[in-house]
Amino acid sequence: MKAKIKLTIPLLVACLLLAACNGDVYYEEHRSVDAKGWNMGDAVEFDVDIDDTTQYYDIFFDLRVNVTYPYANAFFFITTHFPDSSYAADTLECPLADPTGKWYGKNGARYVDNRYYFRRTTRFPMTGTYRFEVTHGMRDTEMTDIKDIGLRMVETTL
What is the pTM of this model? Predict the structure, then answer.
């Protein structure tokens, strides 16, 4: 019984420390893509209202694919539209499997879930609504094995 307690207490402390390191979730949304195929020209959009230009955020990109997804990675183009109509464009590579084909992330019976850093300790320069537009950057015009994508923003400090 003492051995269980000795193992349980450090595990509990480690979990609490990890939870304390996580900031408050400021924004989190997931969007399903067309099951018939996500066309590379069809953007998935996330609108985020920012009212504090002093707050830092970690921004994550969530991805869920079918276990039948045929590639070891996925590429996405993410365009951030600022409230003043300016924009910034980025490319994000998302590794999904190792060279042997073993999935990264949480592997379920039908889907594989992954979370990727998009931006770390980011501040927004102005208040207002920011739109994040995501399109896939794969060679196939239609991607059928991508289930959904998500955007998550967590408040953080430097």
Answer: 0.82
Range of the domain at 73: 24-156
DSSP 127: S
One-letter amino acid of 154: V
In a domain, 71, yes or no: yes
Between the two ends of the chain, the Cα-to-Cα distance in Å is 42
Largest CA distance in the chain: 63
In a domain, 4, yes or no: no
Find all residues with CB under 8 Å of 43, minimum gap 6, and list them: 79, 133, 134, 135
Q: How many domains does the chain have?
A: 1
* DSSP character at residue 100: T
CA separation for the pair 157, 67 (Å, rounded)? 36
State the Rg of the chain over Cα: 18
**Do residues 124 and 114 make contact, with C-beta atoms less than 8 angstroms apart?**
no
Q: What is the CATH number of the domain that holds 48?
A: 2.60.120.380
pLDDT digits (tens, 9 = 90+) for 74-86: 999 999 999 999 9
Question: Is residue 12 in some structural domain?
Answer: no
